[in-house]
Design goal:
It contains eleven helices and eight strands. The chain is an alpha/beta fold. It folds into two domains: about 5-190, NAD(P)-binding Rossmann-like Domain (Rossmann fold, 3-Layer(aba) Sandwich); about 200-245, no CATH class. Strands 3-2-1-4-5-6-7-8 form an eight-stranded mixed beta sheet, sandwiched between helices.
Length: about 260
């Protein structure tokens, strides 16, 4: 499948990342079905997409999108608690559920059963090996990593994580989709050696050292942030980032 063949995108998981991904896809003209386990969570997703800090109203007020784009993006998103509705006619599913491996594996098994044969299953995981998610499916050539960064409507990087099973067509399709969605993709290899791919793996090393500096009493969190912003031109320091997005760490731990 080529990027021109993508007519409908599904997003599994409508939390902070999932709702942001759905928002981006809808803003760029794709019909999107966003699925989560309850109406309460879906209502929170709608609120985040429309009124959130990085939502559509904020983008409209800053001149990032037009009134027409704003209205069309809202029309483009359908919310559901049904896995069958999520998968129906989907060309690409982007999984953005919590970072719990057995939950993701179960989800990929179900997606494989319900989705059309051609559907590409992409995971937003920040560190689990994509090969493990592909293993329970009958389409390992069409299971790939598509790791976005938070907040999804703002951050430009997408890590396209390829396995030894991926076809060149699948890799090119997700790379080209990322570009169509206004992102800059890097195509990298899947790895089970260490947590994270490129950006998170490098940032974790930085975060650990910054935490050690504070624990040793050398500097305060605010001073560390200032040092990195003024010394290396970081847009924000690691402690500022943690306050905005939560700590960066291994799945199921929440710790640096």
């Amino acid at each position: 499948m080529k990027v021109e063949d993508i007519k409908k995108i599904g997003v599994l998981g409508a939390g902070l990342m999932g709702s942001g991904i759905a928002q981006v896809c809808a803003t760029y003209g794709y019909p999107v079905t966003a699925r989560d386990v309850s109406e309460e969570l879906l209502n929170k997703a709608k609120e985040n997409i429309i009124n959130g800090r990085f939502g559509l109203k904020a983008a409209l007020s800053r001149g990032k999108i037009t009134q027409e784009q704003y209205e069309k993006a809202i029309e483009n998103i359908t919310f559901t608690t049904s896995m069958k509705e999520l998968c129906k006619d989907a060309d690409v599913i982007i999984e953005a559920i919590p970072e719990i491996l057995h939950v993701k594996i179960k989800a990929f098994r179900e997606l494989d059963e319900l989705c059309p044969e051609h559907t590409i299953l992409a995971s937003n995981t920040s560190g689990f090996t994509i090969t493990a998610l592909a293993a329970p499916t009958n389409r390992p050539d069409r299971v790939i990593g598509m790791h976005w960064f938070n907040p999804a409507p703002v951050m430009k990087l997408v890590e396209v994580v390829k396995t030894n099973f991926n076809s060149e067509e699948t890799v090119n399709c997700i790379r080209d989709l990322s570009i169509k969605l206004g992102k800059t993709p890097i195509v990298i290899k899947d790895s089970d050696v260490a947590y994270g791919f490129v950006a998170n793996r490098a940032y974790l090393a930085l975060a650990r050292e910054c935490k050690a500096i504070v624990e040793e009493g050398i500097a305060t969190p605010e001073q560390v942030d200032t040092a990195l912003k003024l010394g290396y031109n970081f847009p924000m320091g690691p402690f500022e980032l943690f306050r905005l997005t939560g700590p960066v760490g291994r799945p199921e731990s929440g710790k640096v």
